[in-house]
Design brief:
It is found in: Nucleus. This protein is α+β, with helices and mostly antiparallel strands. It is 46% helix and 15% strand. It contains 8 helices and 8 strands; from the N terminus they run ββββββββαααααααα. A hairpin with a 4-residue loop joins strand 6 and strand 7. The longest helix has 33 residues.
Amino acid sequence: MSERKVLNKYYPPDFDPRKIPRLRLPKDRQYTVRLMAPCNMRCTTCGEYIYKGKKFNSRKETVQNEEYLGIKIFRFYIKCPRCLAEITFKTDPENADYIVEHGATRNFQALKLAEEQAEREAKEEEEEEKNNPMKLLEKRTQMSKQEMDLIEALEDLKDLNRRHANVNFDDMLKQYEEDKVTMLQRQEEEDEAFIRSVYGKGEEGIVKRIKDEDDADSDEEDPKRQKLTTPFEKPTDILIAGSPSTARQEPGVPVMPTGIASQRKASSKSLLAGLVKVKPLAAAKTNEPSPSASSGTSNGTETKVETTNSLGLLCSYSGSDDSE
């Protein structure tokens, strides 16, 4: 199978390159190349704007009898995309740019003009220094001053680096921690002083607190609650504690003195009176005194008065409940 791209040619043994006729081409021959517009331009025929970078199929030729330092200059032919008018431009190796020759005008380019202006000023300054020695002396003096300023700045930077090189970072961190602790202590002391000034004792004395109405109400209700509360678990414990006959004396237990016992009995009666309430009878029975009783009183005989104790009151209270 033969080679597809035919990179290698076959040369027979009797091949003689001197017998091949030389191809004579004209020096101003043209080549078809594809390029982009080198600059913004406007067609003079139809006024179409052609931006930089637009692609064209152009023809390239070598400009005859024009060179710059042995560098050849080339000319390119393109057509306007709107009216198909021919536009030509050539290379400018001296300024590393292109020159539009025919068919279009180059648009304004601020950057190019600024660069040209800067180059022109630099050339004028160089010529002035060559012709004016005082200008050259002033420039040298200014340059030496700038150099001295740079040297001083460099020395300052070196001293600063030397100072930082001798710093002990452990001591620096320790100092930072100590400063932080002292700052926290000072803040705590200031907070405590503020709290003392607001809630504590001041220089004038104790700060009095205003009594609230809720506190007054609670104080008024406390005595009532104290009256209702008893030290006994069951209501019948009052009777057992109050009656000396029913109380059993255990061996080894000391006997309570009579004064204390009487006081305790009185307190138990008062507690019982607050605890048990007698209901009023619907029809109270009134007993008229008998003549014998009146005669007995006249004769000097004393009648026995019935006395009611706590146990009797309790019995009568239960009896009234049963009758109802």
